[in-house]
Automatic annotation (TrEMBL):
Name the UniProt record assigns to this protein: EF-hand domain-containing protein
InterPro entries reported for this sequence: EF-hand-dom_pair (IPR011992), EF_Hand_1_Ca_BS (IPR018247), EF_hand_dom (IPR002048), EF_hand_pair_protein_CML-like (IPR039647)
Domain EF-hand: 2-37, 38-73, 111-141
Keywords: Calcium, Metal-binding, Repeat
GO molecular function: calcium ion binding
Upper lineage: Eukaryota, Viridiplantae, Streptophyta, Embryophyta, Tracheophyta
Pfam families recorded: EF-hand_5, EF-hand_7
């Protein structure tokens, strides 16, 4: 499922030790790298808010449930944050093949520019070779 795959990439981005779950320490470290000033206690509270099984970790299932149960406004904010993760260096308002390749690399996956172009083409509604936010939301749904 496309939606699960998109969320899986988000989990992989934050999951530094590769155990399939995000600890509060991992969450805090990645958010600090992204320019957020976050205390460990705040990261713990954030994970606790969506932790469905009480293990104090954020799992793929927790993230999916959180996205599905959250209000539309929260979903939109979460999608914007995810979009910015893919658009982090260029800040051009689009996901380019280059920015997609770079994001995959950060998540430990190797994709060629051609593979990224094919992935983008699948959801590129206006045929410009880029993904805008609207196209990204369609991809993630």
């Amino acid at each position: 499922m496309i939606k699960d795959a998109g969320f899986e990439h988000v989990i992989k981005y934050f999951d530094e030790d590769g155990d399939g779950k995000v600890s509060s320490t991992e969450l805090r470290q990645k958010l600090i790298l992204m320019g957020e000033d976050l205390l460990l206690k705040e990261a713990e509270m954030g994970i606790e808010a969506v932790d469905s099984d009480g293990d104090r970790y954020l799992s793929l299932e927790d993230l999916i449930v959180s996205m599905e149960e959250g209000g539309e406004e929260q979903k939109l904010r979460d999608l914007k944050e995810a979009f910015e993760m893919y658009n982090d260096n260029d800040k051009c308002g689009f996901i380019t093949p280059k920015s997609l390749k770079r994001t995959f690399k950060k998540m430990g996956e190797s994709k060629s520019i051609d593979e990224c172009k094919i992935m983008i083409k699948h959801f590129d509604l206006n045929g410009d070779g880029l993904l805008n936010f609207h196209e990204f939301t369609i991809m993630m749904s």
